[in-house]
Amino acid sequence: MSVVAVLSSSLRKGQNLRIIVIVFIFFFLGSISQYQGPFEFSIDEDGQVQSVPAEAGEHDIYYTHHIASYKPGDIRPWTRGDTQALRTLEGQKVAEFLAASPLLNTPFYSETSEDHKEQQGLADNAFLHLTKRLRIYKELWRSLQRYYDQLEDEDQQDHFYIHPPPEIAPAIELFQKMERTLFPWILKNHGTSFDLYRQTTKALRTTDNPRKVRGSRNQGIVMCVGDKHSIYARTTVKVLREVLGSRLPIEIYYVGEQDLSKENREWFEKHEDIITVDITTKLDQDLLQISGPTIKPFALLVSRFQEVILMDSDAYFLQDPAILFEDGGYKEVGTVFFYDRTRLSKVAGVNKRSWLYSFLPSVSNHPSKTRWYRSRGDQDQDSGVVVLDKKEHFIGLLAICKMNDVLERNQPTYRATWGEKES
């Protein structure tokens, strides 16, 4: 008994010593920290403590619901001087570069071939140029938005490219060329991306089959469903309407009549506030060649909702999903994402960190915490449920769609990630 007592006493002393050491280290680090104010603490999925200054400014990196938000303002706005510069010989060369399509490698190559590294570098370089174009396009879009809004107020938006004011004519011309290069599949049914933006940020419009839309915030659910998963989607719809009493309108997207049968379409549409949409009638399928999960970002883009919950057909909720729109993180940044399950990495031969830093001008502190970044898996972020305010993130959504375009997804995007989840 005395031996047991001695051992117990020793263990208690050892535990007390460890606690004292940990407390000492904590206060020592706190004493040398440059920031002396209070902190808010959270614990990420790996059990790591994340601390944020309580007085963090709006431009600081911080965590909200384990999601990093970064607003560095590192991209210079488009100015009148930039527009005037397009009239010069050098400016015309820049415009020609921005309007050109970056060349990508062929989709197939051997990772053991001697020229693999050279091919990989070429593709990454092409993606770098693509992201540069997207950043410039974003600022150009913002600079021309007021002009488009003026035309829209006068119901003259169809004249956006016709006889623009001389002071912005060069910018309009460059914008048109960049849209034809970056997003040609939009132009099947829209004269410009502004048309698509206004379509989803204004109040819901009357359709051929008018339905009463509840609420005034232009919110709804988007699901991408084929015949293979229609049985799950039917269950989801029943749960939403009959069990949870959700009244959010729902759009069911599919790729051509062969993807979702007439019988299934009629079953969905017999329910109140549910319509089915063939995405090939909205975007140019000959250019996109989308199918399966790849349809998701494009369905988000063309949806008539401004605030959208993208939901898989087998995503079953225990309460009305409309509660997601009231989430504190969503109200702050306009998005909600969820972690996916952990799976061993299937993407080989790619340095993910180098690829990420090759095209991002600045990176928040969140990527370094992800399983994808640390090569512990390929599916860090789930796409089964995504909440997005398109008014806040329309250009970002366009960029996501570009990453899932036919060339880009077969090259940089799906080479460094497993499917559409991370993009």
UniProtKB/TrEMBL annotation:
Q: Say yes or no: keyword Protein biosynthesis present.
A: no
The UniProt entry lists the main location of this chain as membrane
Membrane-spanning parts: 17-35
Topology relative to the membrane: Single-pass type II membrane protein
Where does it live in the cell?
Membrane
Tell me the GO BP annotations in alphabetical order. Answer: protein O-linked glycosylation
Give the domain of life.
Eukaryota
Quote any Pfam family the record assigns: Mannosyl_trans3
Which GO terms label this protein's molecular function in UniProt? Answer: alpha-1,3-mannosyltransferase activity
Q: Keyword set for this entry?
A: Glycoprotein, Glycosyltransferase, Membrane, Signal-anchor, Transferase, Transmembrane, Transmembrane helix
GO cellular component annotations, sorted alphabetically? Golgi apparatus; membrane
What family is this? Answer: Belongs to the MNN1/MNT family.
Q: What is this protein called?
A: Uncharacterized protein
Q: Which organism is it from?
A: Modicella reniformis
